[in-house]
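Quiz preparation item.
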C-alpha cells in the first residue's frame, strides 16, 4: 500500500510517531498484545501505517496482509448489504420481521423461569421490525452477556454465531423458541440481531450470505481477502487467536494451523463470522468516506448512509438518547456516554460526554478480538486497527488510539 505525505493531509508526522511508540511501549513490548496493525487515512487517501509485533506464537512477524478474525466488525458490512436490498425495493425498514421470517410470529416476552425449568409464559411481544434488528432494539440478546437464564439458554443453544449451528433455518428455529427480553423498540441490547439480519439477506436474495457479500460488496470493492473462512492457499497468512489472561500475557486459544476458520462454516454468522485484512477493511471504510461509493463503485446512496449513521435511540417521550439511557446491558466499547446507535453503526452524539477527542457524527464499531474502525465525516478521517486478543473490554486501547490520532491531526475542518 502506497502512503501519501501526511503533512499534505493535515497531520504532524512527529505526533503520528507517538501512535506507534505508544502501542509498542504500552501493549506490544509488555506482551499485552502480540502484535498490531494500524492505518490512518484522510479523504480516502492512506497517510500513515504502523505494523508491529508477531501474528503467531512461533514469532512470525505481523504481516501487512495478515488475515484476522474481525468478529463484530462483520455487522456494519451486513447492515450495508441489507440496506442495498432496501434501496432495491425488496424490503422496507418498517416491515415486520415476520414478512421474511414467519418463524418469529407469536414471540413472547421473558417473564422468568429457564435453567432446568421451562420459561414462564410471558405476554405476546409487539411485532419486531427490520429497523429493530439494525439498531439492536429487537429484544434479542447475546448469551455471552451472562446475566440471566435467558442468556444461559442462548449459550446452551449455541446461538451466539456458533460455527456448529447446522444452517440458517436451524438458527432461526432455535431462536424462535426463546422469549424476547423486552418489546422491540423499547430498549437497546447488543444481540444476535445482525445474525438474524444475515439470514434475511440470504432469504431475500436467494443466495448464501457469503455469496451475496462476495458478489455485491467484496468483489466490487476489491476486498479479496474477506470471507467466512480462510482458504488453504491463504492459511499461512492467518493469525493465531489469543485470549487475555488476568495478571499475565495472553495465551493462544485458536492456533492458526488448527483453527476452525480454515473450514467453511455451516452457518455464516452475519453478526461476527468474517475474516478480513487491514487493507480490505480500509477499502470498506473508503466506500463509507465516499458516502456509499468509491472508485466508480456505488453500494448505497449518500442519503441512505446518512440515515444509517444518524442516532436512532430515543427515550419514551421521543427525545434523543445515548446508550446509558436506554441500554439493558452495555457491551464492546467502554465509552458509552455520548454514544448513540444508528443502523449498523455506533454514533458519537456528544464528544464532551464521551470524554474523547472527535466530532459529533463519527460512526464506528469494533470486534471482540480488540479490533476497531471509525469514520469521522467532518474530518474525512478513517482509521482501522487490527490485533487479535479477546475479550475487547480489558484495555482502553481504542480510546487511547483515538486521542493520539486526533492529537496528530493539526489541520482540522471542525
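Solution:
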Amino acid at each position: 500500500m502506497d502512503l501519501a505525505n501526511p503533512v499534505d493531509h493535515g497531520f504532524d508526522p512527529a505526533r503520528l510517531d507517538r501512535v506507534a511508540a505508544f502501542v509498542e511501549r504500552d501493549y506490544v513490548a509488555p506482551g499485552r498484545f502480540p502484535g498490531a496493525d494500524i492505518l490512518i487515512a484522510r479523504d480516502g487517501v492512506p497517510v500513515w501505517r504502523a505494523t508491529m509485533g508477531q501474528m503467531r506464537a512461533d514469532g512470525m512477524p505481523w504481516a501487512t496482509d495478515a488475515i484476522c478474525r474481525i468478529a463484530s466488525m462483520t455487522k456494519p458490512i451486513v447492515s450495508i448489504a441489507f440496506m442495498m436490498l432496501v434501496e432495491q425495493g425488496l424490503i422496507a425498514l418498517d416491515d415486520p420481521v415476520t414478512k421474511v421470517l414467519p418463524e418469529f410470529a407469536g414471540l413472547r416476552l421473558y417473564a422468568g423461569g429457564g435453567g432446568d425449568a421451562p420459561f414462564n409464559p410471558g405476554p405476546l411481544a409487539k411485532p419486531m421490525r427490520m429497523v429493530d434488528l439494525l439498531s439492536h432494539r429487537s429484544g434479542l440478546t447475546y448469551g455471552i452477556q451472562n446475566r440471566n437464564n435467558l442468556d444461559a439458554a442462548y449459550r446452551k443453544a449455541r446461538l451466539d454465531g456458533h460455527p456448529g449451528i447446522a444452517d440458517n433455518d436451524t438458527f432461526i428455529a432455535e431462536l424462535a423458541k426463546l422469549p424476547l427480553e423486552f418489546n422491540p423498540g423499547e430498549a437497546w441490547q447488543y444481540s444476535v440481531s445482525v445474525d438474524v439480519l444475515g439470514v434475511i439477506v440470504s432469504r431475500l436474495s436467494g443466495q448464501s450470505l457469503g455469496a451475496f457479500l462476495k458478489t455485491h460488496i467484496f468483489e466490487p470493492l476489491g476486498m479479496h481477502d474477506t470471507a467466512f473462512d480462510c482458504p488453504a492457499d491463504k492459511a499461512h497468512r492467518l493469525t493465531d487467536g489469543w485470549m487475555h489472561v488476568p495478571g499475565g500475557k495472553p495465551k493462544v486459544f485458536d492456533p492458526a494451523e488448527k483453527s476452525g476458520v480454515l473450514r467453511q462454516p455451516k452457518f455464516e454468522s452475519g453478526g461476527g463470522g468474517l475474516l478480513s485484512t487491514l487493507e480490505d477493511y480500509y477499502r470498506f471504510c473508503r466506500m463509507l468516506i465516499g458516502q456509499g461509493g468509491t472508485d466508480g463503485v456505488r453500494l448505497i446512496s449518500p442519503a441512505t448512509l446518512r440515515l444509517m449513521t444518524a442516532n436512532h435511540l430515543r427515550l419514551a417521550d421521543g427525545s434523543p438518547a445515548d446508550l446509558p439511557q436506554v441500554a439493558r446491558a452495555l457491551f464492546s466499547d467502554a465509552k458509552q456516554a455520548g454514544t448513540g446507535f444508528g443502523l449498523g453503526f455506533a454514533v458519537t452524539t456528544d464528544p464532551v460526554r464521551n470524554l474523547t477527542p472527535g466530532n459529533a457524527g463519527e460512526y464506528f464499531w469494533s470486534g471482540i478480538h480488540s479490533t476497531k474502525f471509525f469514520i469521522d465525516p467532518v474530518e474525512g478521517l478513517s482509521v482501522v486497527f487490527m490485533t487479535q486478543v479477546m475479550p475487547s473490554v480489558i484495555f482502553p486501547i481504542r480510546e487511547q488510539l483515538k486521542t493520539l490520532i486526533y492529537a496528530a491531526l493539526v489541520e482540522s475542518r471542525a
